[in-house]
Specification:
The chain has 405 residues and is of the alpha+beta class. The chain has helices at 2-11, 30-36, 63-71, 92-99, 152-162, 175-178, 193-246, 253-280, and strands spanning 15-19, 23-27, 41-45, 55-56, 77-82, 106-129, 133-143, 168-170, 283-307, 310-319, 324-325, 341-342, 349-350, 394-396, 402-404. The radius of gyration is 30 Å and the shape is flat.
């Protein structure tokens, strides 16, 4: 944190001097003063022991928001050229057979050629708030030439390569020709905004769902523990009130009072369950952080897909840094799971769940072609998918049953 703050302040024109213990003395220009809310001459500290007259800086408080104001739009978007070894894969047929497995179609490799591509690497920050809070970053990478989504292992390899200064060069101005970057027609075109947003809407939820699994599991354990404690307490009260009521004759005013007391205990229990529901309700907020446009050489596989009498040619890129062939993306779910199925109408590559039978008429159909309803019986599309924004739990009621919340 101290190194980051020192670098940022120097970049913004402030004079910074390290002081002991673990602090900085800052002479800030007016823009830095306004953004950070500090005086012209100030001291900040980062350790357990602060320098005299220093203000503590850490992840707690509003210091991250202050630094965000100081950064403004800087670092939101960047372009880089990533050089890579030009060696082609040794056995393209074997690579393709390992990566592309189709249950209802055949494919044939037409050829492998060197090419250049653009990757968009988008970073998103998510905060999940319930009785606890969890912050995490999710990176989404897409190949603009083929539409394939990058696996986490490929993203990690590219991130390591970006740290190597000798492999990375700015992608702007006259440097392009000097660094061997092809002219614009040789690069895939940038996608329009609506296409990028559509991909994000389909591809991000499953990734956030995977990140939230441990958080949600822990929350359910704590919720179940609180539900059990609440149920045990009110159930004992309810049972005791009903025992006293049943011991009295019908029409006795004391019996009516005990029955009313039991009913009041049930209402209080349901109100406490509602309080638990509000306490453990999870709110997830997602914010786009930055985008990196990455230009690099690849080896492009041209593959012919055949389904019955129809055929289609798809492109898959072999990344020389990750040394693996990119997996085609499901046309419906935008997941990195291997598609495995080819539809009859447009030869979409989809995962088996997106080509399952209609629950009403039993006909299998492609959800990428017909996302709303079945083309045969017009039944609503009931593809079983997990919605990461909806979580349900159930709790035992005061009489031993279950009340959904």
């Amino acid at each position: 944190m101290q190194g980051f703050v020192e670098t940022l302040l120097r970049h913004e024109g402030a004079l910074v001097e390290p002081i002991e213990p673990e602090g900085l003395e800052v002479l800030a220009p007016p823009p830095v003063q306004r953004a950070l809310g500090v005086a012209e001459l100030s001291r900040v500290g980062f350790g357990s022991t602060l320098p005299p007259a220093a203000e503590r800086v850490g992840l707690e408080g509003d210091w991250l928001e202050r630094f965000a104001r100081l950064l403004g739009p800087q670092g939101r978007y960047a372009r880089r050229v990533l050089s890579a070894p030009g060696r082609a894969p040794n056995d393209p047929e074997r690579l393709l057979g390992h990566e592309l497995v189709l249950d209802n179609a055949t494919f044939r490799l037409l050829g492998v050629t060197p090419a250049w591509t653009r990757y968009l690497l988008l970073d998103f920050r998510a905060s999940a708030v319930s009785d606890d809070k969890r912050d995490f970053i999710v990176r989404l990478g897409v190949n603009l030439a083929t539409g394939a989504l990058l696996l986490d292992a490929t993203l990690a390899t590219l991130a390591l390569s970006l740290d190597a200064a000798d492999l990375v060069a700015p992608f702007s101005g006259d440097d392009e020709a000097d660094r061997g970057v092809p002219e614009a027609p040789a690069l895939p075109a940038l996608w329009d905004r609506s296409r990028v947003l559509d991909l994000i809407a389909r591809a991000l939820p499953p990734r956030f769902d995977a990140k939230l699994d441990h958080f949600i599991a822990g929350m359910h354990r704590r919720l179940g523990r609180d539900q059990g404690r609440l149920h045990g307490y009110h159930n004992d009260l309810h049972r005791e009130a009903m025992r006293r009521a049943l011991a009295l004759p019908e029409g006795d005013p004391r019996r009516q009072r005990e029955e009313q007391r039991a009913a009041a205990i049930g209402r209080e229990y349901r109100a406490k369950l509602d309080d638990l529901a509000r306490q453990y309700a999870t709110r997830v907020t997602v914010e786009w952080v930055q985008t990196l446009e990455l230009v690099m050489p690849v080896h492009r596989f041209a593959v012919q897909i055949r389904r019955r009498k129809a055929d289609r040619v798809i492109l898959l890129d072999w990344n020389p840094l990750a040394r693996r062939l990119e997996t085609p993306t499901c046309a419906y779910t935008a997941s990195t799971e291997r598609p495995g199925m080819v539809c009859d109408d447009a030869l979409h590559l989809v995962v088996p769940a997106a080509f399952c039978p209609c629950p009403a008429c039993g006909r299998a159909f492609c959800r990428a072609c017909h996302p709303i309803c079945c083309p045969k019986c017009a039944a609503a599309n009931a593809l079983p998918t997990r919605r990461w924004t909806d979580r349900f739990w159930s709790a035992p009621d005061a009489t031993g049953g279950h009340a959904s919340r």
